[in-house]
Amino acid sequence: MVTAPRGNKTEFECPYHRWLFSKEGKLIGCPNSDEYSPGFKKEDYPIPQPRTDSYLGLIFCTFSAESTSLLDWLGEDTLAPLSTILGKDGRLKLLGYQKVRYNVNWKAYCDNDGFHAPLLHRAFKMLNWQGGKGRQYTPTERHLVFESKLSEAPNTSFLNDYSILEFKGVDPSEGSCIVQLYPMFVSTKHLDMLNLRFAFASGPNTTEVHYAYFTHLDDDPELANHRLRQSSNLLGPTGLISMEDASIFHRIHIGAQTPGTVEFQKGVTDFYKLNDQFKQNDESGNLPRWEYYRKVMGFERGEE
Predict the structure, then answer these.
(1) Which residues fall within 8 angstroms of residue 249, CB to CB, at 6 or more apart?
(2) How far is CA 196 from the centre of its chain?
(3) What is the pTM of this model?
(4) Is the model's pLDDT at 274 over the cut of 60?
(5) Is-contact 282 115, C-beta < 8 A?
(6) What does the angle CA 152 – CA 153 – CA 155 come to, to the nearest 5 degrees?
(7) At residue 39, does pLDDT exceed 90?
(8) pLDDT number for residue 83
(9) Phi, psi torsion values for 184, nearest 5 degrees
């Protein structure tokens, strides 16, 4: 019904049969309604309204009447790291966004882990970030949190402009925090970047991701510009760090459809017991969310 990426409206019109709805979702106009079926009443055709709630300005919505409250769904241990990414108080300003479509099923896009980072990403190795200390944990069976310490890059001679790697607004020891909310939302504070990624499954073979970049309202113009340059040049779709992700997604998608067995290995200590704490570079942090997915889908679990 609405195709514009942003804006405000007081009424919404369906382009197919020109039904007109108010901003509250009430049907207020429809052409030739005197020729509709017997007993037709506009009040019987409102747009279903979602339940909404927000945390530090981040808006959540659901059409389920049975889902729990937002704070219960997030989990208490998710709030602190999510608050860090949202600038502690949610007083953020949108700097810009980029959109990209990956030729990959949404489940492979979301299958994030700490194991691949120094192995796939050349930038991490060049910047000597793969040795950083940190941890992963699952605050609930759905979500996953990464907290990592970063240090100043020891060798930046390969860059013409080192400023995109500088720490300007944060303590380097608190350099990286990622909150991945089930199933497809990823939020990141890496160096000085404040980055929210909204992903949508466009089909079984395509995932669309919107990278949104923010600055804090208290930032001066220099810091705001610094955040923007870091965001697009490091974690954007073709950034210094994440361009390898774009190239590998489709290869993973193809490989997942070939004969063979996919198993998590790094950090797996028990084949039938799920942990909630993991090392920074483990891949086993994904297991709890896949166990949750199995339950939601009603798949049977294999015998021990």
Answers:
(1) 102, 103, 104, 108, 109, 207
(2) 6
(3) 0.88
(4) yes
(5) yes
(6) 145
(7) yes
(8) 95
(9) -135, 5
